[in-house]
Design goal:
The protein is α+β, with helices and mostly antiparallel strands. It contains 14 helices and 52 strands. The strands form eleven sheets. Strands 31, 33, 35, 36, 39, 44, 45, 46, 47, 50, 51 and 52 form a twelve-stranded mixed β-sheet that branches. The chain has an eight-stranded parallel β-sheet with strand order 18-15-26-25-24-23-22-21. Strands 2-3-4-14-13-6-11 form a seven-stranded mixed β-sheet. The protein is globular, with a radius of gyration of 33 Å.
């Protein structure tokens, strides 16, 4: 039974607001029409047929016919544009990423072509969005001059058209992608245009009129705010699109306003930091020239313009439920006669007081948190002798004393924090710096809330070989950790000790990315993740870290949630689509908060756990550098469904539930059950996957000397404990399971476990690509009739290559024409890393590399020979450098084409440090090492003087490049007859990274290797 909670009344959190202060400037309003459309004169206006007839009397109808035909032909030839009638118009939900080649939809969750209707649902005080799409299906360009929305009405009630904000989506061209994107999305590397900057339709440039070329798509983003005091019910209105000729098309807008309201105050704090110097650099001018005041004072001639830019930016962030924090606004620093720093707060208070008392914002809600005005480089430590010096310590102590005194006088001390990330790349150095700072703060004022971005625990249990962790918990009040270092369980202990914990988003799979290229659910998931793990805030250190030229760019876009507006004739920034989706997630959390306070605590927790099963350290695979799949639901429709369920639960929780009188109760309950079932099946599953299949030789068993070990991972992502048995299924002829199945007893929800499945067999053939498919399943043990029911299953591959003896010496020159023909010594059909979790789209195969790679292996008495045949019909586009370095993006090589060999010559290898690693780059450089450099923090890594020779040939054949490698067998040390090996290729043009063994995430784990049989040389 759920304990009852006091219900939140429909409009408890709202009050009418008065006129804004005089220094505030108007925000972005709804769009009507733009009058900058160029005037076009038709040739027909220069030739009047009646005038022609008057001057030249028509003697016969033949002349009239000829002249009329000529004029009609002329007017037809001069037609250069079509209108709105040639456009296919439809709408899609806000979570859809719209590309230029988007295909029209007739029906979806927000649009009906039959009814010509856009459907929206929202609570009072919520901002709801959709996207309006236009595809030009004519052979001529089509121009849109205006997009207008009417008032939405319900009887005598109205939602004003002024509550609409409309934007044109601009695209950003992206050429390169990080490894997380290539692994965790269905796309490979290719040039794409991603929608992100949102240009208001009222902008003087870059919006309307809009010309859409034939077969091209344009997208508008529509926001609608439901103001406090709006009565619940279904409102209707129209959306009108007009062209250059005055023709128009209309869609009906239907808005259902829920009978509950989102609170004005935020129950999840999102800190959005920005730099005012960057703002002014792109928006502030004097005499039409860019001007950036080094320090804004009341006497500056641009003071009014600069503060207007600051206020507009702050209001935009505040409207998206973020706290605007201008880090570089600080009090004036002066030195007195004794050399002691003195702070003048006059200009500081004038600029930020409105944020702290709420008068700068439409809803009058003050910010919940505010930093002490100091950063890592302001004041500049070098002026005072550098970090840790006594001079800097004296200055910092006095600076902070005056800060706390002023904050106390202003009544701001209860919401302050100090975010001062410590310099240095060495963890020990940074821990010591925080320790030094924390001790200083305890002397200056123990109330100062110090935020720290280092974890309050050692990383040794997560795989780090040695960690210079220091226990500084007594000195830290707030743990603002990067998601990749965040262990929710450990942070729960810190919260129990009265500490706060914040989320600092960094990269997938540990948390969603705020990059332009990130799937739409990433930004939305961040607020859910913070709430799911009890984190009180999200810290976004920068939201306007723009390129120098201000043009939107994917590089660094995680720190650019707003974009400069000067390119579009605006004197303030514009929002991004990612900011809108971040807002969607923040509003979702207010739904969850309302559910908790209206007797729906259990359901709120259930939905929250469904959408964010795990995150942070729970995404670790073999160690903290290895990330498994992300822990949030990736299907955008599931997020929409979750919101619908939350809204329904809140409607039913209201004192007067708004049930539809036309739907019988049993039908309504059945529909709700179907909705819950659909939601559960979308977000909750039992997941089984192969990490690798290894083979070992048991010379004591003469009938089945080959022992197979399948390493699997089972994740219970369902809502209930799971029991069953794991075993190989559909074994090839001659195979048999070795021992009883692996029993899984009461595996709890959101828990995972590793298991090793065993089978035995005699020698067997492999296919021409060098592998045998294998399958495993989780079978139920609870069937009443004793039958086996599959709960889930998985496919893997046992990769095996038989090394062929070479009797004729091979010349290592990169050419393969001296290799003898043989059977069973080839490895091919390379599988892209990551595709077992996310298959690739729009390709001949969702799993394989696009260019075939074949490897041949042979040996003589002294050496192991390996040859790569790398197909590539675009050799001239390969990335080739002149260095002998390998660069890694996390655990993937990046930047240039290469091939890899990973070897484990005996069965004793347990981690990456036990492996031999060979890289041959397309430029011919050879890198040999024991272990792998990118894993030096978790495993051994050292040079391997193997005496290897290698050669590359990319001249003999125009559609491939080939590699030969000769490895002295003595360099491998102790070697068994059956050992581990893998081959890989990185194809930089498409960002394809594939391996023969079908490794899932990365290559450098002995479990993920294939198998090689090389009998002792006679």
């Amino acid at each position: 039974m759920v304990a009852s909670q006091p219900r939140v009344p429909f409009d408890e959190h709202f009050e009418r607001v008065s006129t804004l202060p005089s220094r505030n400037v108007p925000g972005i309003s709804r769009v009507v029409e733009n009058d900058h459309y160029p005037v076009r004169i038709s040739p027909r206006k220069n030739l009047n047929l009646e005038e022609v007839r008057g001057k030249h009397p028509v003697k016969n109808n033949f002349f009239t016919l000829i002249l009329g035909s000529l004029l009609l032909g002329l007017s037809g030839c001069m037609q250069t544009e079509s209108g709105v009638k040639s456009l296919h118009i439809w709408a899609v939900p806000d979570w859809v990423t719209v590309f230029r080649d988007a295909l029209p939809e007739s029906e979806n969750a927000v649009f009906s072509e039959t009814a010509k209707q856009v459907r929206l649902q929202a609570a009072v005080n919520e901002r709801v969005s959709c996207q309006l799409l236009f595809k030009n299906e004519s052979a001529l360009p089509a121009t849109i001059r205006g997009v207008t929305a009417s008032d939405l009405t319900l009887n005598v009630h109205t939602v004003s058209a002024d509550q609409f904000s409309m934007y044109l989506q601009h695209w950003v061209t992206v050429h390169d992608y990080p490894s997380w994107y290539l692994r965790l999305t269905p796309y490979l590397r290719e040039t794409r245009e991603y929608p992100d900057p949102l240009v208001p339709l009222t902008a003087p440039k870059g919006a309307l009129p809009l010309q859409i070329m034939p077969d091209q798509c344009a997208a508008f983003w529509i926001d609608l705010h439901i103001p406090p005091g709006t009565e619940p019910g279904v409102y209707t209105g129209t959306l009108r699109i007009t062209d250059h000729a005055g023709n128009s098309r209309e869609l009906q807008i239907q808005l259902e306003v829920f009978p509950f309201a989102l609170p004005q105050s935020n129950h999840l704090t999102v800190i959005a930091g920005f730099n005012t110097q960057t703002l002014w650099q792109h928006h502030l001018t004097i005499n039409d020239r860019a001007y950036t005041p080094q320090r804004l004072t009341f006497n500056d001639p641009t003071y009014e313009s600069a503060t207007a830019i600051l206020d507009t930016t702050a209001r935009m962030l505040h409207e998206h439920r973020c706290i605007p924090v201008p880090w570089d606004i600080q009090p004036q620093r002066e030195l007195d006669a004794h050399g002691v720093i003195r702070l003048d707060w006059t200009d500081y208070d004038r600029l930020v007081a409105g944020f702290l008392d709420g008068t700068a914002f439409d809803n009058r809600m003050p910010v919940a948190l505010w930093p002490l005005p100091i950063t890592a480089d302001l004041p500049n430590p070098e002026i005072y002798g550098g970090w840790g010096s006594q001079s800097y310590r004296n200055m910092l102590a006095e600076y902070l004393r005056q800060c706390t005194a002023h904050f106390q006088d202003q009544g701001w001390m209860d919401r302050h924090f100090l975010w001062l990330p410590q310099p240095g790349s060495d963890r020990l150095e940074r821990y010591r710096s925080y320790e030094w700072l924390g001790q200083l703060l305890s002397e200056v004022d123990p109330r100062i809330q110090l935020a720290c971005d280092l974890p309050p625990y050692s990383l040794v249990p997560y795989g780090m070989k040695t960690d210079n962790y220091r226990d500084i918990a007594a000195l830290v009040h707030i743990w603002g950790l990067p998601a990749s270092l965040m262990d929710p369980r450990e942070l729960a202990h810190q919260r129990a000790a009265d500490k706060s914990a914040w989320l600092l988003p960094d990269r997938p799979p540990y948390a969603g990315s705020l990059s332009i290229i990130a799937p739409s659910t990433h930004a939305r998931s961040l607020a859910w993740m913070a709430r799911r793990f009890g984190l009180s805030a999200i810290l976004l250190p920068q939201v306007n870290a723009w390129p120098a030229n201000g043009h939107p760019n994917n590089s660094g876009s995680e720190n650019a949630l707003i974009w400069p507006g000067n390119e579009y004739g605006l004197d303030h920034p514009i929002p991004s689509i990612r900011l809108k989706r971040l807002l969607r997630g923040i509003q979702d959390c207010e739904y969850l908060w309302l559910m908790e306070h209206n007797g729906r605590q259990g359901i709120a927790r259930l939905i929250e756990t469904d959408m964010i099963p795990f995150g942070g350290a729970a995404c670790y695979g073999d160690h903290y550098l290895d990330g498994r799949g992300h822990g949030w639901v990736s299907d955008g429709s599931a997020w929409m469904l979750a919101r619908q369920i939350m809204a329904r639960e809140l409607r039913q929780a209201m004192p007067v539930a708004a049930a539809d009188p036309g739907i019988p109760e049993d039908i309504r309950q059945f529909a709700e059950q179907i909705e819950w079932t659909r939601f559960s099946h979308t977000v909750r599953n039992l997941e089984l996957q192969f990490d690798g299949v290894r083979m070992y030789l048991d010379e004591q068993d003469h009938s089945r000397p080959l022992r197979i070990e399948g390493h699997v991972w089972l994740l219970n992502a369902t809502r209930a404990p799971v029991s069953g048995k794991l075993e190989f299924i559909d074994l090839p002829e001659g195979w048999q399971n070795d021992g009883p199945p692996v029993l899984i007893d009461n595996l709890q929800p959101l828990q995972g476990t590793r298991a090793v499945l065993r089978a035995r067999t005699r020698p067997f053939p492999v296919n021409s690509d060098g592998f045998v498919p294998v399958r495993a399943a989780m079978l139920s043990t609870k069937a009443s009739d004793g039958s086996n029911r599959y709960l889930t299953e998985a496919s893997g591959r046992l990769s095996l290559i038989n090394v062929q003896p070479i009797t004729t010496p091979i010349t290592v020159d990169g050419r393969l024409d001296d290799w003898p023909l043989a059977m069973g010594n080839t490895a091919s059909d390379f599988v892209l890393l990551g595709t077992a979790d996310v298959p690739k789209q729009n390709r001949f195969s969702p799993y394989q590399m696009s260019r075939r790679t074949t490897v041949f292996v042979g040996h003589d008495q002294d050496n192991l020979y390996i040859a790569f045949n790398c197909r590539d019909d675009r050799l001239h586009e390969r990335t080739i450098t002149r260095n002998n370095l390998v660069f890694y993006d996390e655990l993937w090589p990046t930047g240039e084409d290469l091939v890899e060999v990973v070897l484990a010559p005996d069965s004793r290898a347990v981690d990456a440090g036990d492996l031999f690693h060979i890289v041959v780059k397309a430029n011919g450089a050879v890198i040999t090492e024991r272990g792998v450099a990118c894993l030096a923090e978790v495993a051994g890594n050292e040079p391997w003087p193997a005496g290897i020779s290698a050669a590359v040939d990319d001249q003999s054949q125009g559609d491939r490049w080939t590699v030969e490698i000769k490895i002295p067998l003595t360099s491998l040390g102790r070697r068994e007859a059956l050992w581990g090996i893998n081959f890989a290729r990185y194809h930089s043009l498409h960002g394809e990274y594939g391996s023969w063994s079908a490794a899932r995430r990365y290559l450098y784990n002995p479990v993920t290797l294939g198998n090689i049989y090389l009998p002792p040389v006679q």
